[in-house]
Amino acid sequence: MSHTNFLWAPPATPSLAVHGSTQRLPVHRLFFVGRNYHAHAMEMVGKPVDKANERAFYFTKSPHSLVESGATIAYPPSTANYHYEMELVVVLGKGGFQVKAADAHELIYGYACGLDMTRRDLQLIARDKGRPWDLGKDVEDGSVISPVVPMPGVVIEQGTIALQVNGQPKQSSNVNLLIWNIREIIEDLSTYYHLQPGDVIYTGTPEGVGPVVAGDKITGQMEGVGEIALTIERAD
């Protein structure tokens, strides 16, 4: 067997805990759906999404930005407006290309709760200048996720989703309000990418996003999936 002679040790493969199993799920890519609830689109850009004339849009983050629920992370550098976004996360167990919506369930392995942590000030600067969102979105320790609950072939179509900061309610909605539902997201993403096992899709956040500061404790719940928690500490 040949061995690659690296200059230094490569990073470990990002992976997720799986509920009820000692095995871990290797992560391939992280996809995020932007503005996938009308009320969140209203709070961000002042108007709902015209689904009849628009397609879903996406951004990506490095899988190395993943941290597990229950972690304590440092307030990130170069921001004064760090936001939470609670999301239902779909984890794929099979690959596919140009998948029909009716067949999208065949790719699903399970679900998790997710937090898309965002340097909102940097994101808005980039948005207003027509630049990529990377500095605002692809934040170290900025993709928080709970253990994956295996639900092969199951398409979640409704369920309450909520988030609290220091016990105070901030977000409360239902995933039946997704503009592009899970079948439609998988179908559309698969026109751009050959989807693979271990692809992870954050499906979008409802309204109520807002800032956190050092010392804050974030908690969230997704009906039928589980809970998530994150503590913010002082910057390094």
Structure keywords:
mainly beta; Fumarylacetoacetate hydrolase, domain 2; five-stranded mixed beta sheet; 14% helix; Fumarylacetoacetate hydrolase family protein; Fumarylacetoacetase-like_C; Fumarylacetoacetase_C_sf; metal-binding; hydrolase activity
> Taking Cα atoms only, what radius of gyration do you get, to the nearest Å?
17 Å
- End-to-end span in angstroms? 42 Å
Structural class: mainly beta
| Broad shape | globular
Fold-level CATH name: Fumarylacetoacetate hydrolase, domain 2
Subunit arrangement of the protein: single chain
Total E-strand runs: 18
The SSE string, one letter per element, is EEEHEEEEEEEHHEEEEHEEEE
CATH 2nd-level architecture? Alpha-Beta Complex
The CATH superfamily is: Fumarylacetoacetase-like, C-terminal domain
Question: Which percent bin holds the helix content?
Answer: 10-25%
Number of helical stretches of at least 4 residues:
4
Largest sheet: 8 strands, mixed
Beta-strand content estimate: 35-45%
Unreliable sequence segments: none
GO molecular function, one term: hydrolase activity
Domain Fumarylacetoacetase-like C-terminal: 31-232
Pfam families: FAA_hydrolase
Keywords: Hydrolase, Metal-binding
Strand and helix map with partners:
Elements: E1 15-17, E2 24-26, E3 29-34, H1 38-45, E4 57-61, E5 66-68, E6 71-74, E7 82-84, E8 86-92, E9 108-116, E10 118-119, H2 120-128, H3 134-137, E11 143-145, E12 149-150, E13 160-165, E14 168-174, H4 182-192, E15 199-202, E16 210-212, E17 217-222, E18 226-233
Parallel strand pairs: 3-15, 5-11, 6-18
Antiparallel strand pairs: 1-2, 3-4, 7-10, 7-16, 8-9, 8-15, 9-11, 9-12, 13-14, 13-17, 17-18
